[in-house]
Amino acid sequence: MNFYKRLVAVLAVGALSIGAFAFGASAYGTDNNTPYSFTVPANQEIGYGSAEYRGNSGIEVPWKIEFTFSAEGKGTSTYYYLSGPWWSHQSNSYMIKQGEKAKYYHAYDTAKNMDVALAAYNNNKNDKVYMVAGYWDEETAKHTFSDYN
Predict the structure, then answer these.
(1) Collapsing DSSP states into helix, strand and coil, what is residue 148?
(2) What is the pLDDT of residue 32?
(3) What is the separation of C-alpha 78 from the centre of its chain, rounded to a whole number of angstroms?
(4) DSSP E strand stretches across 1-149
(5) Spatial CA neighbour of 139 closest among 53, 81, 76
(6) How far apart are CA 84 and CA 104, in angstroms?
(7) Which of 74, 81, 98, 148 can pair with 70 through a Cys bridge, CB separation 3.0 to 4.6 Å?
(8) pTM of the model
(9) For residues 59 and 110, what is the distance between their CA atoms, to the nearest angstrom?
């Protein structure tokens, strides 16, 4: 009888360990607020934030952007998108207004199992260089998509 109790205990601990590893290995299912700040160059050149790993999530799992600060000014707009290897687009570009609530967008189906970075460029073609900051998440819990609104 003692053998069976130990066997059940070992199997239970093993199952919990595997479940914890599987949940912890993916950012899907959570809604992180990873801070970002970087410079947006002049003349609609592209600025990049740090990269985060996007797991095996498909297009049903959005990425998030919350644009909280712009040195260009309160209420100004900047285009954001997900960038992948070799500066490839891994989502459409979206014009986001500083100070609006978080937005959730589709990533391309190719944005799987890779590091993606937040990329941004000015919505105006001018010689201004400015800092942007806020929060983003490369792979969130499921949300209503903002690109449908």
Answers:
(1) helix
(2) 86
(3) 16
(4) 34-40, 47-54, 63-70, 77-83, 94-97, 103-105, 114-122, 130-137
(5) 53
(6) 18
(7) 98
(8) 0.79
(9) 9
